[in-house]
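--- STAGE predict ---
source: upstream dedup step, 1 unique chain passed
mode: sequence only
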Amino acid sequence: MDWYIPITILPAVSLLILSTTSQMMNLSTEIGGILSDKCTHFEHKISGLKIKQLTKLTRATTLLYLSAACFVLAGIFGAILPEDSGLNQSLPHLVLLSGVVLTLFALGLLIVYGMKSISIRKMQHEFNQHMDNDEEGK
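--- STAGE serialize ---
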């Protein structure tokens, strides 16, 4: 395996890490805003759901960091191991495959996060709509 193949995947993983970290920071700020004052039962429920979402993002970021490390190691192993050794044929490929699997798991978590995030926003929207209707009825 050519040593540079796993290294070419790093920019894509880095962008995923960057965007996931940005999402984590925004979500953390939003949770902090909700919890800064005494909250209602609904706000407490929403903040609990958002904390679970933050956990998903943290796990996804961790998996992306591990996959980036696997890609770097695969490149290093591909560069330093002699081409005629059996290790050069198997070790870099196994480490590269590990990185790909970790990335796929991280993407799965991000997909679940995205889908759940829409349902949380929908809950907030419906609650706010219900509150507006209650206030108009008074």
